[in-house]
Give the backbone structure.
Amino acid sequence: MHRTRLEIRTSAFEGIVFGVRVSTEKLSKYLAVVIGSEIDFFVRNGSRTGHANIAEAVALTGVTYDDTTRTMYLSDLRNNVSIFSNDLTEKNFTSTPLLKKENGMHIMGIVFDTSSRTLFWVDTLKEIIGKMEVPLNDEPSNPIILHNLTGNSPCGIALDVCNSFIYWANSNTTNPSIERSNLDGSDRTIVVKENLYEPLAVAIDHAQQKLYWIDDVEGIHFKIERSNLDGSERELLVLNKHQQPIYLAVDNESVYWSDWVHRAVWSMPKNVKVGDYPTKFKSYYESKKDANPAGIVTRDNVGKIDCAAVFSMLEKRRNLSEPVSRPSAETFNNLTTSTEESDLTTESSKNCLNNGHLNKTDGTCRCKPGFIGPFCEISICHNYCLHGKCIINQRGLPECECTDTFSGTRCEKDVCDDYCLFDGQCSVQNGRPFCSCKYSKGTRCEELNDIAQICTNYCASNRSESPNISVVLCRCTDSNQTAERLTFNDNFQSDILLPIFAALTATFLLVIAGLSYYVNKLRRRPRIKRHYVVSKGVMPLTSRPQMPDNQCEITIENCCNMNICETPCFEPKLRTGMPTCNSTKKEEKNSLLDNMEGNLC
């Protein structure tokens, strides 16, 4: 175990920051955000009340809380330990490793079920949902795979405490969905399937029994939606742009999400009213430039939840929101509505989105054309037209006005794809493809024109039509009916091509001349001859007088450059310097005389 220092920024010792036993009312005001190796604790007004620096952490992602033991579980992407826990009951709390990191492990989110003492997590790279038991007085169990989600790109994870369900988001854009199952993995069901692009995070609101999720819509927009836990009564809460939301959390009043574009945490009231917009709850743009805010956990949603009270409240609201038939005049005076019931009805009234009209009689929304759903939250035009503009026809159904060359019910087909042949230009006229042919004819430009006519048209250009073209040469013949057109640009030819060509040619000739000179020089090495006049006992003569009978002249050549030596030869010392004195010459002569076979004289 490692000891971790907890830095205290205020004198408050309340809430989940240090695990001090305080009232539930005070505890419910806290939420925690992990970023880098740190945890920040806030109240709902955005004031930070605590800060923890986890020495063992590197890049924290998921976070969850066990209210029974006051323990916080954290996941780390870059640490050798992927999941560890921290005891919050002391200032200097301890970090306990729970799951060692393996190759290809990338845990994005974790949740903890207090009743079964089970920790669940979603691994994005391995594409699994794993779980392990964390008993109170025993060692954690070995991790096991709850769901193998190969090809689904699982991302977010959430826990429904009251109904014992686990939810997760499949972010594969080709088959996006939100699923759930029992905690043991059974009864796996798709909850939301339609009008999704890339769901990234899910959260459960236990107080109102609602499912929340983030959908990163194609392009620059994103959505935050909610529905009943079974996917019914779908509502659109936030439709915004220029953000990259990753993690999601809810409490009794608001929705929170972390954004990696602005490095901030945003919030939005759960019960949206006209004029409500997302607000920046906490910005890390200047203070944490090397890390992004990640997991968020709120105390209301992970503490001790009274599920019986939640179910009782929901049942009462359902009874009050049921449509009531209009009473007769005789019984009207006998019906009374209590103030409490009236307030509850008003509280549970639906907020109609997209300029929908609320019918105060039965509490339903009357949607404008193009929107459906209990709260008019679903646009039937959303992602309907692939390449065009969506409009609502007189029957209230979506229709597409296609752009460019696309057609089809949803503008999904490009009618000009490989339609016009021989470089014909395709366009759409009256909903059908039309070809503008160049050198052919026919509906699809499939019939080539007479080549002689093509030649005549092709060679009709002159300098007045193309001032940058200096030469236009065409040759059209009847025999083969071919055309040639040669064009050169004066400036390009005279300023660039000719100097380059001349320089290359001169360089090539110089190289050839140099090589020829050195080859001839090596082949024609000079013949070396030496003349000596010798006689017995007489000094050599330096001239050539009439030789007496006892004298003779010897001519000696260097035979190294000849195939046959016609005269006696010697091997000159080519690698040594020239003789510098007469003694050297005498040595050469004496050596020559000693090696001769007999006396030539």
